[in-house]
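Ticket #641: bound-state structure for adenosine-5'-diphosphate.
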Amino acid sequence: MNPVLTLDHLNVSFATNNGEVSAVSDLSLSITPGECVGIVGESGSGKSQTFLGAMGLLANNGTATGRVVFQGQDLLTLDRAALNKIRGDRMAMIFQDAGTSLTPHMRIGDQLIEVLTTHKGHSRQAARQRVLEVMESMRIPEIEKRLTQYPHEFSGGMRQRVMIAMALVCEPDLLIADEPTTALDVTVQAQILNLFRALKRHTKSAIVLITHDLGVVAGLCDRVAVMYAGRIVEEAPVADIFAAPKHPYTQGLLKCMPRLDQLLDAELDAIPGQPPNLQNLPNGCAFAERCVNANTRCHNERPALRELSSARRAACHLLEAA
Amino acid sequence: MLSFALKRLAIAAPTLFIIVSLSFFLMHTAPGGPFDAEANLEPQIIANLKAAYDLDKPLFQQYLIYLGKVAQGEFGPSIRYQDRSVTQLIATGLPVSLRIGLSAIFIAAMIGISLGITAALNQNKTTDYVVMGVAMTGIAVPSFVLAPLMTLIFGVILKLLPIATLEPGGSLARTFPAIAPLTPYILPIIALAIPQVAIISRLTRGAMIEVLRQNYIRTARAKGLAERRVVWRHALQAGLLPVVSYLGPAIAGIVTGAVVVETIFQLPGMGRFFVQGAINRDYPLVLGIVIIFATAVIAMNLIVDLLYGVLDPKVKAGD
Ligand SMILES: Nc1ncnc2c1ncn2[C@@H]1O[C@H](COP(=O)(O)OP(=O)(O)O)[C@@H](O)[C@H]1O
Ligand code: SF4
Ligand SMILES: [Mg+2]
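RESOLUTION: The complex was predicted; output attached.
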């Protein structure tokens, strides 16, 4: 099956007063139709910028290079109008902070309806009908009344449901969800994750789920890509990641996952040290400063992302011999 | 909304009272009096004149008499314009000032907002620098420099527009008779509007740049909306909030601007009566105009607050 999205040697960098920030470096990844891929990594590892870059949503000082092939078209070569035909329609994105991601002075209904009137040429009435349908599947109560309200009249969880509904009204082939549960409290997080589970069963859309929490990935994704300092360091089917993580960073992440026998607030930040400065990335392995297995080669030579088996890739010198 | 408006009106009354009282005592403590220029008059005549305007009574009594009149909606007779009441003078001056002031603020808002949006959408590009450079000049050059300069160029040298009169004139009026009645107002309106254009465009630019950085603008773009719709539907309303709150003080600024501009252009508006009144210690005239100005400013601020509630659904007028 042809991939729905292929990132091919994608770089995202930002021009700042203190020099260039390399947020994403030489990143290649394919998403197959219908599959759910988790993108995991610490905060600042470039997860969001990878997909914002792919959707043409970078901040003014950012540039994306490489290729972003969506259903055969390289999005980075498209002009605004051509890109606008795709995003929101065949490719949609949900953001972490639903509280600030909805326009405060527009009624929720109008914000949903405009997606359909823009892409599908629906009349307002037809669009409203479809919006009601999708809102219902998002288990939003009192929909009719809700449509006339403003974002500040919604709870955090309800706003995130609206964001998801907004992304789904056009039945996209690819849904990118950037930390959809991070800003929510635990019970609401569970509800939203349940929605995603239902979504995965009932739609044919591929899902990219960005999260810093490996636990979120576990019950939901088919495949996981682990990012560190703007690169993918390991990619594997989800079961393999949990059963046999190969990269020392993935192993570290798994070790600091919360377990049921731990207190909720227990100290989890287990990998000591900090990720490298993105303005001045090391020549060798970006993880070397924090890696227990690091040797001189690690500090001098960057490990390539190599295939370990047909479904697995990792970037670590230690794995070369195997 | 209604109870909010009523509450504000209830505050307006004491505010006006304080403004009137302060102005009254400030006016009367300023040295000199209305008849100083007529020093050659007999002392007896001056005493009679003073008695006619109650100026011979103790100050506090004068104050009470004045408050009593104002409460009945009367501003008394003018001292300087002897056969006319302050109300009559205001009735001739106010329409002139309103025409100039409101046109100026309306035009300034339209142009300023358009320029501000254009600059914000082209942030740090040539268009932005040009627009903002021009705006900065507008702020730097005050009306009292701009007005004589424009009079000189368009009135005296080019003879396009009439000067120092409300009668139509100049070659523009002869070429386009349809707009002839407007010609006397063009220069004063421009002189009054230009500094406001500058301020409003800067405000709009700053606010729009801030709004365009917001997460919800990213959402709107992610939805594939045309840039036009992103700007007009998702950004503009929030971007205009600071401009709307500025319009209250701006209208107060137009009032003081009118004093300068009407004096320079010699137009019989409130501003000129105010200056004449102040120079001649025409107490009733000055106080009458202060009351009208203060009422206008309070009313405009109320309207602006109500408008704010309409633009921002989070602001429930009344909280
Ligand atoms: N506009 C910007 N200018 C400079 N650096 C930026 C900008 N936006 C993001 N970055 C940097 O890019 C890096 C990756 O960010 P991001 O992809 O948002 O991380 P995360 O993995 O938490 O989603 C961060 O270190 C951040 O500082
Ligand atoms: S390459 Fe070296 S430093 Fe990097 S993860 Fe592997 S062992 Fe650790
Ligand atoms: Mg992020």
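RESOLUTION NOTES: Residues A 248, 285, 287-288, 291, 293-294, 298, 303, 316-318 surround iron/sulfur cluster (ligand 2) (CB under 6 Å).
TICKET STATUS: resolved
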